[in-house]
């Protein structure tokens, strides 16, 4: 038993979820793909090509439907889960990112409107001897007529779980574009104008390492790209035999996707060692801590800042030799 408000809030007996504006974009793709699927069904002819297109469209719809980017408040576990990935029911078959926060560590949740974007911002309690926590936020896409009911539902459900809610969409704490004249240059202004975050406040001292982006030894090159080789040959055969360029492109993209997943799995296995490997670069007042994944001997290093003359960054997916 669940209820839904404006396609943004989803409530069941044991949980309450906030659905992001980015996730709601999937319904546009699903609608267009559904129209395509209906037309394919009407014009369906019993052939390998038609069956293949029907299967591909169905799989694409299933993948798009499983995409989730939301916050889930579990009332029984007293835990907030920030999930971004692909999930059907309670089964997550690919996770892009996932974080959990105990209710005891949540200071409050703020509702704020920044340049017409409705944001729900999570504020965590600052523990002693730790750096202030970075704010996490999620953007909502709500019609103006639905805002009061969405805000009321948000407040009611969060307050019932003991989570304090502050702020208001469209209130005086929001920043709005003036009709004419200049705009004050600050973090929110720049982010809204160019779409990226140039400023970090407070200054970041921990930088997570994405294993997928780390270089692999050259002997892994062909192992990663074998699916792409196979899909490319199949795509060329499809073009040669039937001149169906759309099917060939789909097959090629599928092979590239499999190669990307294969590379992630190989990187995870190659760079994961020990019980709980540290995959963060940590900058303290006196030292620079570099995780073991950056070194051939698989030993983390701590370097004094005074011993560093310069830092050269070189990015490559494959190492031509064994030099660290």
How does this model look, in words?
With 324 residues, this protein is of the alpha+beta class. The chain contains 7 helices and 16 strands. It has helices at 21-24, 26-42, 48-66, 147-160, 187-194, 221-242, 245-271, and strands spanning 2-5, 9-12, 15-19, 67-74, 79-88, 91-102, 106-114, 117-124, 136-140, 165-167, 206-208, 216-217, 280-283, 287-290, 301-304, 318-319. The strands form 4 sheets. Strands 1-2-3-4-5-6 form a 6-stranded antiparallel beta sheet. Helix 2 (26-42) runs antiparallel to helix 3 (48-66) and helix 6 (221-242) runs antiparallel to helix 7 (245-271).
Set down the secondary structure blueprint.
Blueprint: E1 2-5, E2 9-12, E3 15-19, H1 21-24, H2 26-42, H3 48-66, E4 67-74, E5 79-88, E6 91-102, E7 106-114, E8 117-124, E9 136-140, H4 147-160, E10 165-167, H5 187-194, E11 206-208, E12 216-217, H6 221-242, H7 245-271, E13 280-283, E14 287-290, E15 301-304, E16 318-319
Parallel strand pairs: 7-10, 12-16
Antiparallel strand pairs: 1-2, 2-3, 3-4, 4-5, 5-6, 7-8, 8-9, 11-13, 13-14, 14-15
